[in-house]
């Protein structure tokens, strides 16, 4: 916490003093790429990914310790009947992750990714955002700090995912709070809401943004009032990754909402991040466009739990391997173009 005793001050300070890219490592990667045995640009976005790795790690592109971090939280707004599933499913799915039975476990096995689950006071749902703030400032700041600590074990590629029944309502409220439009623009089915559940979801998002409106020009207040514990922890983890030169893959609609808060505080805050995939959640693409990003994948997925990020990690690993493992024209005795 800061000397002034205001818990958010340290984060505001961090967000206004973010490290930039390593221009030397970037130039080195571009130089090597030009010598590899392929026509210039023929690996398309894989080449851009290799440059991005170099710029944000400050080293030759490599992914040796990729990690999927899933943050789980519960939400008071579920009392409004905004999800087809009960909040108890959050803890049950955390158990499933631990037992290796979820989709994310299989993708981690496929791409040889580490997996860590962080459950955030699941017995203590946040405040119902349509009636009060999700968190007080101290809780929000402490949860961000917890998210920052999640990287302590070390990684060189962080995949950010989440689990939390009700959190597509939370993400929609954050996007509506940050970007405006109408609640219906941002609310989608999540785990399968339709009919009256969907109508209650739109009403809850509408009420939440109307209630907190006077404070929503401050992104940290958007996080505290409209967010959730897993959202705050993801924001902290993304921020810590920047400070520690760790590139980040952001998963779906919900993880993007955490990222969007940081972007609203500093438009450069996500330069070390890629949006792994565009979720089937209808508002996701509009949110991604607000961030000035292009998603790597579009597979019609809408699961969360880091699955899109973990799939994209396979692509990022391949990009690094091509960059570091390919022979140059000189090494392979292949004629360069005239
Ligand atoms: O991130 C996404 O794109 C996404 C889209 C739809 C659903 N989810 C997941 O579904 C849960 C929230 O859905 P809901 O309907 O309870 O708000 C939560 O565990 C998310 O991980 C996630
Ligand atoms: C079963 C289930 C699995 C999930 N994984 C991420 N969010 C989820 C939501 C539900 C309901």
TrEMBL record:
Coiled coil: none annotated. Gene3D superfamilies: 1.10.1610.10, 3.40.50.10210. The keyword Transferase applies. Catalyzes the synthesis of alpha-ribazole-5'-phosphate from nicotinate mononucleotide (NAMN) and 5,6-dimethylbenzimidazole (DMB). It catalyses: 5,6-dimethylbenzimidazole + nicotinate beta-D-ribonucleotide = alpha-ribazole 5'-phosphate + nicotinate + H(+). This is Nicotinate-nucleotide--dimethylbenzimidazole phosphoribosyltransferase. Keywords: Cobalamin biosynthesis, Glycosyltransferase, Transferase. It is an enzyme of class 2 (transferase). The gene is cobT. The active site is at 305 (proton acceptor). It comes from Hoeflea algicola. Belongs to the CobT family. NCBIfam families: cobT_DBIPRT, PRK00105.1. Pathway: Nucleoside biosynthesis; alpha-ribazole biosynthesis; alpha-ribazole from 5,6-dimethylbenzimidazole: step 1/2. SUPFAM superfamilies: Nicotinate mononucleotide:5,6-dimethylbenzimidazole phosphoribosyltransferase (CobT). The keyword Heme does not apply. GO terms for molecular function: nicotinate-nucleotide-dimethylbenzimidazole phosphoribosyltransferase activity. It holds the Pfam family DBI_PRT. It comes from the Bacteria. Its EC number is 2.4.2.21.
């Amino acid at each position: 916490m800061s000397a002034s005793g205001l818990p958010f001050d340290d984060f505001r300070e961090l967000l206004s003093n973010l490290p930039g890219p390593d221009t030397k490592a970037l130039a080195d990667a571009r130089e090597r790429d030009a010598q590899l045995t392929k026509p210039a640009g023929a690996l398309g976005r894989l080449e851009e990914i290799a440059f991005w790795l170099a710029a944000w790690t400050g080293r030759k592109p490599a992914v040796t310790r990729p990690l999927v971090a899933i943050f789980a939280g519960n939400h008071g707004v579920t009392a409004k009947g905004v999800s087809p599933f009960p909040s108890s499913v959050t803890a049950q799915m955390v158990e499933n992750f631990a037992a290796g039975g979820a989709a994310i476990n299989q993708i981690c096995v496929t791409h040889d990714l580490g997996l860590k689950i962080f459950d955030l006071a699941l017995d203590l749902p946040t405040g119902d955002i349509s009636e009060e703030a999700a968190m007080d400032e101290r809780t929000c700041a402490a949860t961000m700090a917890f998210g920052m600590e999640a990287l302590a074990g070390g990684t060189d590629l962080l995949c950010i995912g989440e689990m939390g029944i009700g959190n597509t309502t939370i993400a929609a409220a954050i996007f509506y709070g940050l970007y405006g439009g109408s609640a219906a623009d941002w609310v989608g089915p999540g785990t399968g809401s339709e009919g009256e559940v969907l109508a209650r979801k739109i009403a809850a998002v509408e009420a939440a943004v109307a209630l907190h409106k006077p404070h929503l020009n401050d992104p940290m207040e958007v996080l505290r009032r409209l967010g959730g514990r897993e959202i705050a922890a993801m924001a902290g983890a993304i921020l810590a990754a920047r400070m520690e030169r760790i590139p980040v893959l952001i998963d779906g609609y919900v993880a993007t909402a955490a990222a969007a808060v940081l972007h609203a505080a500093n438009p450069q805050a996500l330069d070390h991040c890629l949006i792994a995939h565009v979720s089937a959640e209808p508002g996701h693409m509009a949110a991604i466009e607000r961030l000035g990003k292009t998603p790597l994948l579009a597979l019609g997925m809408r699961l969360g739990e880091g699955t899109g990020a973990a799939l994209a990690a396979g692509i990022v690993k391949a990009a690094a391997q091509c960059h570091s493992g390919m022979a140059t024209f000189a090494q392979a005795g292949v004629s360069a173009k005239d």
